[in-house]
Amino acid sequence: MFTVIGIMFGGIAAGYLLRKMELLQNIGKPISYTILLLLFLLGISVGANDAIVNNLTTLGGQAFLIALAGTAGSVLAAWGVYHFFFKERRGE
Amino acid sequence: MRGSLIVVAFFALGCILGWSGYLPDVVVENNMTMYVLYLLMFQVGLSIGSDKKLKEILCSIRPKLLLVPLATIVGTLTASALISLVITKWSVFDCLAVGSGFAYYSLSSILITELKEASLGVQMATELGTIALMANIIREIMALLGAPLFVRYFGRLAPICAGGATTMDTTLPIITRYSGKDLVFVSIFHGILVDFTVPFFVSFFCSM
Question: Which residues of B95-108 are buried (b: 16+ CB within 10 A; e: fewer)?
């Protein structure tokens, strides 16, 4: 855990020091390539794993439940915040 | 949406290759993922540190606006903890780790797979990582498709909170359309802030 967060903070510091470099303003592209590579690697380990391939529907069901819960929870909380803090100042 | 399709395609391609068994064992069983993850985290850090808008955004924060990302975080985490009562296979912290991806499926799934390996073992960690990937993709799809419904029943902030960490890019167009143009800034601010919390929450819940 600390390695990952530590490396990120190292990146933040480096990025801040080097923020004048033009190159860094286009960091979004390499990030998406790295993400694609990582998901490809994750795909390989998932595909090579028979226990996961055979249980894909079960895992998918659990994933659906967690997604539904997260969405419902945040939408309800959004309603609360909107209702109590934002609504009366709608014309703002 | 197109970006998500490409991501899913890469993941699926990996799945098929891994499943086919044609790959040499070296590729399947090495630790390369860990180092690529470190590279990714460093890049994420670079992008945060070098962002010229970051300072402006930090300066323009009004306390009231913080309530929006707060609602997303509190709502998501509470509901994820509650749903773990139904999903008996995983602990409450496992469900929280998946939920705290806030639709940022790529980073959260990879972090969970790598960080959970120590406590759950490779098998369970990969399973939970797969769940995280699917759950957070499904959440993004829900945010995209449900936006008009959310606005009608839960107010104009609801699509923003549902979108989690994606509200400054992939779900921004749909939010602008249904919540109104005046909330564009709130949506971007919300997305950046929630996005920033993902690595912290995910690794925190993985260590529990």
Answer: bbbbbbbbbbbbbb
**Domain match, A44 and A61 both:** no
Give the count of domains, chain A: 2
Do residues B98 and A66 make contact, with C-beta atoms less than 8 angstroms apart? yes
Q: What are phi and psi of A53, to 5 degrees?
A: -60, -40
CA A68 – CA B154 distance, rounded (Å): 16
Token reading at B26: 């070296």
> Using an 8 Å Cβ cutoff, are A8 and B44 in contact?
yes
For B:90-109, CB contacts with A below 8 A are: 90, 95, 98-99, 102, 106-107, 109
ipTM here: 0.78
pLDDT for B110-159, tens place per residue? 889 888 888 888 888 888 988 998 898 888 888 888 888 898 999 889 99
Please, how many CA atoms are within 13 Å of residue A45, restricted to the half-sphere of its CB?
Answer: 26
* Nearest of B102, B106, B100 to residue B84 by alpha carbon: B100
pTM given for the model: 0.75
Q: With contacts defined as CB-CB under 8 Å, which chain B residues touch A1?
A: 115, 203-204, 206-207
Which residue has 């797969």 as its token pair?
Answer: B130
**Within this chain, do residues B5 and B84 fall inside the same structural domain, yes or no?**
no
Q: Are B171 and B190 in contact (CB under 8 A)?
A: no
- Structural domain of A31: 1-49
* B75 interface with A at CB cutoff 8 Å: yes
Encoded amino acid at B143, one letter: A
Question: Is residue B181 situated within a structural domain?
Answer: yes
